[in-house]
Amino acid sequence: MIYKNKKLQRIFGSTVKEEKEQQTKNRRSFFKKAGLGGLSLAGLGMASIQDQVAYATQNVSRHSSPSELKITDMRIAEIGGDVVFRTPIVRIYTNQGIIGHGDVRDGAAKEYALFLKSRLLGENPCNVERLFGIIKQFGHHGRQGGGVSGVEMALWDIVGKAYGVPVYQLLGGKYREKVRVYCDTTVSKDPVEYANRMQARIDQGYTALKMDIGINLIKDIPGALINSPDAKYNPYQYDYTDYNKTKHPFTRVQITEKGLDKLMEYLDVMRSKIGYDVPMGTDHWGHFGVNEAIKIARAAEPYNLAYIEDIIPWQMDEQWKEITMSSTTPTQTGEDIYMLEGGFEKLITTRSVDIVHPDPNTAGGILETKRIGDFASKHGIGFMHHHAAGPISFLGCVHSAAATENFMWLEHHAVDKKDWENLVTGFDGPIVKDGYVTVPEKPGIGVELNEEMVKKYLIKGEKLFAPTPEWNEIRAWDRLWS
Fold first, then answer.
1. To bridge 103 with a disulfide, which of 143, 164, 393, 478 should be the other Cys (CB 3.0-4.6 Å)?
2. Does 3.20.20.120 match the CATH number of domain 178-449?
3. Strand runs labelled E in 80-139
4. Over the stretch 462-480, which tens digit does the pLDDT of each residue have?
5. Pairing between strand 307-309 and 280-283?
């Protein structure tokens, strides 16, 4: 109450200003207690209606109206060098100031993403599945899936930020608090040195490993290979193509018993060094046909490999099944397959491989990768993630992995790249610790870009998220039916 008599006012009342200041002070005290967990909804009975409403809605974003979100722009910053394989970073802007990030797959062209911009402008980014239906026809296998996949991840990043939840929650929740990673190491032609490098990974805390091993390690040994890639009479050396661009069955490279013994020596020394407690897979065997692949799979059985990866191209599903049925060494493929229906479905239903290995940056993004994992689970097939790009999509993979029940391991291909983790901010502690990644709990993918670090590693001639108006409009009729 306000009194006209100033003396009475000092004794019995307060000024309007004083009353407002006291109300503000009380409310701050109230929210301080609420923020510290000192209040619960049950303890709000003595609070005003306004305070009860304010408390109940304290975590609701005041800067986002998801139903009114619109995509206003898309830009690219392409990085590479010592920090990461060459990777275009996608940034999608909205009318409410919320931005989302994703990576186009390592080694892919940024145009794979920019080509999609005209199809997305003006759309609500929260309609991820609908927008994916519009743009998925412009993706394909290998790096050509990178544009669609990077855009899909950026959309999920926006949605999570708009609703104030981590991406995994939008996928139905998580099965695990931490995601196990596996890592590669650098190759050495000296088996002992190679084994020491693998042991160093274990010493760093990694609990799953992969080594690149193949005919490149023995091609200089006389009598190890027939029709060696380096042989002067190899027809591919003089043709329009060469060995590494020739599909495996057509190189006619064969591995002799001497060559096979030498390859197995690497595995023998490796296992003697690191033991058998840690799962170890293998990759990059070389380009040769199904007969040589079966030789290797059988010879490797005593070393209990976790898998042999991409020992022939993924498209040759019948030959994959022949290899799988011929040996107890697990088989794995999938990093270059776009979408479940694009190739995974047949490999899984025919049990052509033991493990599928999608790269979310090629497979179609976060949700499509989860679909692949769920389908594999239904058929009793293992499920892993390939990854070789930046930390944004790496953590996008973490959300997909956390939300899929039968997930095994996520590839970490940047162990030796010192500034890789510094490309992002907002993650508590190191991203990878003791061979695991803690699933982010912050909205969206869970991190933001460190723009100063991104600038440092921009590809020569590239600008930091330069405007791209030339991609705003395109004359096209995209419908695939009449």
1. 393
2. yes
3. 87-94, 100-103
4. 999 999 999 999 888 898 8
5. parallel
Which residues, in sequence order, are CB contacts of 240 under 8 Å at separation 6+? Answer: none
Among 360, 362, 352, CA closest to 394:
360
AA identity, residue 147 = G
- Could you give the CA distance from residue 67 to residue 315 in angstroms, rounded to a whole number? 42
> Residue 216 corresponds to which tokens in the numbers above?
């490149």
**C-alpha span between 11 and 3 (Å, rounded):** 10
User: How far is the C-alpha of 149 from the C-alpha of 114, rounded, in Å?
Assistant: 12
Residues 82, 87, 93, 99, Cα dihedral to 10° = -60
Q: Which of 291, 355, 287 minimizes the C-alpha distance to 323? A: 291
DSSP state of 5: S
- How far apart are alpha carbons 180 and 420 in whole angstroms? 18
- The confidence score (pLDDT) of residue 139 equals 97
CA-to-CA separations, 50 to 21, 45, 68, 265, in angstroms, rounded: 17, 12, 27, 74
Among 217, 330, 216, 230, residue whose Cα is nearest residue 266: 217
What tokens does 214 get?
A: 């193949």
Q: What are the DSSP calls for 351-416, one per residue?
A: T--SEE---HHHHTSHHHHHHHHHHHHHTT-EEEE---S-HHHHHHHHHHHHT-TTEEEEEE--TT
Q: Which of 69, 75, 170 minimizes the C-alpha distance to 124?
A: 69
Burial of 10 (0-12, 13-18, 19+ CB in 10 A): exposed
Cβ(288)–Cβ(263) below 8 Å = no
Do residues 265 and 191 lie in contact, with contact meaning Cβ atoms separated by under 8 Å?
A: yes
For residue 344, give the nearest of 363, 328, 325 by alpha carbon: 363
User: Looking at residue 35, what is its pLDDT?
Assistant: 44
Tokens 């209040």 belong to which residue? 39
Q: Which of 344, 340, 390, 328 is closest to 365 using CA atoms?
A: 340
pLDDT(167) > 50: yes
Q: What residues does 368 pair with on adjacent strands? A: none
What is the pLDDT at residue 244? Answer: 81
**Per-chain mean pLDDT for the chain:** 89
H-run or E-run covering 210: strand 209-212
Q: Are 125 and 93 in contact (CB under 8 A)?
A: no
What residues does 178 pair with on adjacent strands?
A: 438
CATH of domain 66-165+465-471: 3.30.390.10
Residue entry with tokens 């065997």: 285
| Domains in the chain: boundaries | 6-56, 66-165+465-471, 178-449
Helix, strand or coil for residue 348? helix
pLDDT of residue 38: 42
